[in-house]
Each structure stands twice: as C-alpha cells, then as structure tokens.
What we know:
The chain has about 425 residues and is an all-alpha fold. The protein has 20 helices and no strands. The chain has a single domain (about 15-420), classed as Up-down Bundle (Growth Hormone, Chain: A), CATH 1.20.1250.20. About 55% of the residues are buried.
Amino acid sequence: MSAAGLPPTAGSGAGRRGIVAWCLYDWANSAFPTVIVTFVFAAYFTSTVAENETVGTALWGNAMSLSALVVALSAPLFGAIADNGGRRKPWIAALSILCVLVGAALWSIEPEQRFLWQALILVGLANAAFELAQVFYNAMLPEVAPPRLLGRVSGWAWAAGYAGGLVCLAVCLVVFALPEEPPFGLDKERFEHVRATGPFVALWFAVFCLPMFLLTPDRQSSGLPIGEALRRGLGQLVRTLRQVRQYGNILRFLIARMLYIDGLNTLFAFGGIYAAGTFGMGFEEILMFGILLNVTSGLGAAAFAWIDDWLGSKPTIIIAVSALTLLGGAILLVETKTSFMILGAALGIFIGPAQAASRTLMARLAPAELRTEMFGLYAFSGKATAFLGPALVGWATLLADSQRVGMSMILVFFVAGLLLLLPVKEPRDGA
Length: 431
C-alpha cells in the first residue's frame, strides 16, 4: 500500500506517513507466524526433530496451547497498565525485541530428538511475545485511523501483513530452499538451509518494524511511575471484570470471537503440518503453498477492507467465517495435492477479512478510556480457549491416527463462533 492511496489528511488519525508506517509493522511481524509457526519451522519440527509426525503434531499443539494460555492470562492486565501509563510503543518495542532474539535462536535447533524441548520452549516464548505485542499494536488503531477509515486501515494492515509473509516466504524459497548449494556454506544434510529461516525472519522483523517506531505517533505518557501504573491498572481491570455485565454487547462479541479465532489459530498452527503429513508435501512444496495462500489472503483482506466500511464489520465477519467453514470442510474431503492447493487458495481469501474486521469491530465497540484494556480482553478472547483447539487436534490425531479427523475439530469452532456472533449489535461510525 502506498501513501498515495490515503486521503490528504487523516483527520483525528496519524496522517499518511503514520498510517503507512503502522501498517508496515504488520508487514514486519507477519513473517514470524507465516514462516515459523505455520509453514516452515513447524513442518521441520514435526517431520525431522520429533520422533515422528504424529508425536510431533501433538507436542507442537501442546506447546502452542501453553503459549496461548500465558497470553490469555497476562494480556488484560498489560492492557490495563498501558491505559494508565499512556504510551503503547515501549511495550511493543520490548516484546518485539524478545520475539526477534528468541526467533534468531531457532538456528540452534538441529535435526535430532535431543533438541525437541529446546525447540518447543523457544517457539512458545517467541509466540507469546509476538501475541502480547499485538495487544498494544491493535489498540493504536482507533487513534491511527480516522473513524471513516477504520475498516480500510485495519484491512490494509492485514493485507500488508500477508504481503510481508508472502515476500519473506518467497525469499526463503529462492535463497535457502531451491539452490543445490545454499548460500553461506549451509549444509543441507544438517537442515541448515531450513534452520536459517529463524535468523532470517528475526532480521526481517527487526528491520521493517522500525518505521512505525519512528513515524507513527504514540499517546502521551501519563507521567505515572511504572509501579503506580501497575497498581491502577490492576484496580481498573478488577473493576471492569466486576462490571462486565455493563459491557454485555462487547462480551457477546468476545465470546464469539474466542471460538472462531481459535479455529483460525489452530488452522495456522497445523496448516504446514497437515500439508506435510496428509499430502506428503516437502519443504519446497509447503513454501510454494504458503506463497499461494498469502497471495489470496492479502487480496481478500484488501478487497474486504472496503466492504468492512461499507456494510459493517459484523456482516464482513459473518461472510468470512461462513466461507471458511464450507471451504474447510471441503479441504478435509479431497485426496489430491492439486485439489488441496486450489481449495486452500480459495480459503485464504476469507482469512484476512475475518481477522481484520474483528479488529475493526473491537475498535468500534471499545470505550476510548479503556481501549488498551479492552484489546487486552480481545487478546484474551483469542487465547482463552486457544489451548483447546491445538489440544483437540493433537489428541484427536493421536486417537484416530488420522490428521483429517484431527483437523475436523476446527470446523466446530467456526460454526459455534458464527452462531454466537449473530446477536451482537454493531455501532456505526458517523462519517
């Protein structure tokens, strides 16, 4: 997305440069879930580091579940503290640095079972840092974008994220996977060309996140010492939880999102694993499929960004989750790689809109004075049952000795979330 695509001024927002820089953070950090969590390192772990793909799938699912639980329990408190402290970018910076450093350390995971627990600990820690940074980043949306552009800016950022994941995957394919002799003397027999994706993603993240810190304005600091911000934040969170019935509409939305996003997160965690285990796709094929999926996901997020501002966030989510359910069911029935890739590409069109419109709806629902705290609860809703999705997929896979049976659990979360979303009332922006 270019700055030319934005209005001359952002009104109450951050202006052209600030909006573009904010969206670029999505470009930067999306390389981590795309390359590490979904397509490359997950498949490497289950097929090479673990004893076998079935055991690896179960262990990977348990690690993602524990990471999600850490995020669920800590995100609302962090959000309440930030609302009292004022600034969001210092939190984003600290958590991004942690994700970068731990992600780079994945180079140390050699293709032997003795590195299994080290791999799980590193990936779980990096994933928790990544997700917690999103709490503060998402809370910036209503201040970065003017009300009439909330849906478009959120969608543009998701599209930028998919584009970033796409380009990063493409570079990994061209530089590390395809050459007979990988660069820098990397040894393919020791899977160094795969392990190198960890440091590469870390470098990508570190470089491309800088514009947001330099160009996107942050809120003013409240001037409170960290201890006082912590005390007030904890008290504010307790009061909000006690008065949660006053926010019944938000609560209904968060419960619905808790379920359908759990389905999406589980899909991300096991997408590469399913492609490798059920269809026998190798590292190069998984990368190519990841590139195709990111193309369609980015196009979907960009296209539905306009629909979000036109029809509303709730109708956009309903369309997206319904399509995900139908296409996801079809994917579980096909037998060939070609059918899998075609349906997967179609499914990608609706992944971005479900995510971006959810963020927009939360921005429209949240009271301004509780925005970061509400996005902390938003993160909680995305992680509170996130242990359940991967765990169900992992254990169902083990019990049935079938990845297809395990992956079918995802559809249950889509349908339940969709039904619970229906009574949610969406406020409309005035402009």
